[in-house]
Design a protein that fits this description.
The complex is a heterodimer.
Chain A: E1 2-12, E2 18-28, E3 32-36, H1 43-50, E4 61-68, E5 71-72, H2 80-86, E6 87-90, H3 101-111, H4 117-130, H5 134-137, H6 150-162, E7 168-172, H7 180-193, E8 198-202, H8 206-212, E9 215-220, E10 223-229, H9 230-235, H10 240-246
Chain B: H1 2-38, H2 40-45, E1 49-50, E2 55-56, H3 59-90, H4 93-106, H5 111-129, H6 137-147, H7 149-162, H8 165-173, H9 178-189, H10 191-207, H11 210-216, H12 233-240, H13 246-278
Antiparallel strand pairs in B: 1-2
Helix pairs in contact in B: 1-13, 3-6, 3-7, 3-10, 4-7, 5-6, 5-11, 6-11, 7-10, 8-9, 10-13, 12-13
The chains are: A alpha/beta, B mainly alpha.
Chain lengths: 251, 279
């Protein structure tokens, strides 16, 4: 079933600098889409459009449409705060809030009106378990989240997104600052999460895209160069530029 | 030549510190013997101030200073903090670029002008609409509340701007509205800095003299309500030092010592909270 459809989508920042041009792609439910591309290729911009994080920027313009379950996310019917609950986001640099581990995960549910210690406890445990962090922190939920290691912080950020019971999870280079073991743990968490959520992951690491994604997309200078099954893209890419990038001949 | 400039600057740097020490030494030299002679308890605890009859109780003035400072904070902190929050979180950068310097200009207005405005505008308003003499604790609190606004606003703006943008993004990405993000994340992260802003504002309020002399009525008594007249420690010195002599003069210096210690303690607390934030 189709979860997200991006149709003829274009986006420009203030001053008219075009970040995305005529993007067409779709993501199925319970599927992981890996987005690859060099810096400035527009991949993070697309992610930030998908949950309307770009709303805060002044002077932007866009074309085309993005639909979630068939509804245009930029139309008036969809409340951006509610959209961001349904479409969670994890950033490249883990940014736990300067509070306890527990508070970090409980923050989102509290915002959306979940009250009662027991219910929050359950959500916190659920989030931390799903992000494969529970066993490491269950005895010190009250300590500051800033004391965790980088990899743990990033899994905490995934946990707090999951505690909101989202439908889609966007990850913007979630492993860029992490060591291989932390990266492995996050990838493990992702493949488990796939059964319940739709996941879009932006990555600089082509090997990571090959490992975790079902479909892959290659962006270059705001253009979607190639999009298809990960297997096909990594074995018989249709576009020479994609071939150059994944085989390391880029630039 | 290089050596000469270096030495010259050294002398200038040390002399400014020396001036600070001389002032401190002088206040304590004049005030301390009197405190020891009369006893700290009788001065701080005494309720009667009759310099001509040898009664030097400054308790009503300590209370007056604390009340008017507290009143200034009650008025100035919510106003100043909301203003800073608006400018940093809700307004366009352009608006902030114009308004912030304008607010800082407020700090440059001489206090006698604030006092003058208070006497001409505020005091009659209070007298007519609320009763009492008009020259009152309330008038002093309002004027001081306005005077500490620039301190509180400009420090709060700096503190709020220093909160990493990523905290806001993280919160927004979890579906929080801007208001929720500000109240639950930004203000919490900026808490110690805001405390510093409040304490510095408090230091300014407690030390202010001219405007307070002009609008508070200067009666040495415990106020029964916010519409009653009060006298602060600073007013006491400001009003009487010109004609005081002997014991009376020493008593005023003792008042200065008490004020000095109060302000020192405040500054100490302020720098301690700031250090905590850096850690």
């Amino acid at each position: 079933m189709e979860k997200i459809r991006v149709k003829g989508f274009g986006f420009a920042y203030q001053g008219g600098s075009v970040a995305l041009e005529n993007i067409n792609l779709s993501v199925m439910r319970n599927e992981i889409l890996g987005i690859m591309g060099p810096a400035q290729s527009g991949k993070s911009t697309l992610l930030r459009c998908l949950n309307r994080m770009v709303d805060a920027l002044p002077g932007t313009s866009r074309k085309g449409s993005i639909t979630l379950d068939g509804a245009d996310i930029f139309s008036g019917e969809i409340d951006p705060d509610d959209l961001r609950r349904r479409v969670g986001m994890v950033f490249d640099v883990p940014v736990p809030l300067p509070r306890s581990i527990y508070e970090n995960v409980a923050y989102g549910p509290k915002l959306h009106g979940v009250r009662g210690r027991k219910k929050l406890d359950e959500l916190v445990e659920f989030g931390l378990r799903s992000a494969i962090l529970w066993d490491e922190v269950k005895d010190r939920l009250g300590t500051s989240a800033l004391r965790l290691s980088g990899g743990q912080q990033q899994r905490l950020c995934i946990a707090r997104t999951l505690a909101l019971d989202p439908e889609v999870i966007l990850l913007d280079e979630p492993c860029s600052g992490l060591d291989p073991i932390s990266t492995l743990k996050i990838e493990e968490a992702l493949s488990e999460l796939k059964s319940k959520y739709t996941i879009i992951i932006v990555t600089n690491n082509t090997k990571q895209a090959a490992r975790v994604s079902d479909k892959a997309a290659y962006f270059l200078m705001g253009e979607l160069v190639e999009y298809g099954r990960t297997k096909q893209i990594f074995t018989v890419p249709r576009d020479r530029r994609t071939d150059d990038y994944i085989s390391g001949r880029f630039g | 030549m290089e050596k000469l400039i270096e030495k010259g600057l050294l002398v200038i740097a040390y002399s400014s510190i020396a001036i600070l020490f001389i002032i401190t030494f002088f206040i304590f030299k004049e005030g301390l013997p009197f405190i020891f002679r009369e006893g700290l308890g009788t001065i701080l605890g005494g309720v009667e101030w009759r310099p001509t009859k040898g009664e030097f109780g400054i308790l009503p003035m300590v209370v007056g200073s604390l009340l008017v400072t507290g009143g200034a904070l009650v008025i100035g902190v919510p106003l100043g903090l909301s203003c800073a929050v608006f400018l940093v979180e809700f307004s366009k950068p352009k608006v902030r670029r114009i308004l912030k310097p304008a607010i800082e200009l407020l700090a440059g207005i001489p206090s006698v002008v604030y006092g003058f405005l208070g006497v001409i505008l505020l005091v009659p308003l209070i007298r007519v609409h609320l009763g009492g003499p008009g020259l009152s604790l309330l008038a002093g609190s309002i004027i001081l509340g306005i005077m500490i606004l620039p301190t509180i606003i400009s420090i709060s703006i700096d503190v709020l701007e220093a909160v990493p943008q990523s905290y806001r993004e993280g919160s927004i990405a979890l579906g929080a509205t801007t208001t929720q993000t500000v109240s639950m994340v930004v203000l919490k992260a900026a808490r110690s800095g805001i405390v510093t802003a409040v304490i510095l504002g408090m230091g300014r309020a407690i030390g202010e003299t001219m405007a307070v002399i002009m609008v508070t009525g200067n009666a040495v008594a415990f106020p029964g309500s916010i519409l009653d007249s009060i006298r602060t420690l600073t007013s006491n010195i400001g009003i009487e030092l010109a004609y005081a002599s002997g014991d009376h003069q020493e008593a005023l210096f003792a008042t200065g010592v008490v004020l000095f210690v109060m302000i020192m303690v405040l500054n100490l607390v302020a720098s301690m909270t700031r250090k905590k934030r850096i850690r």
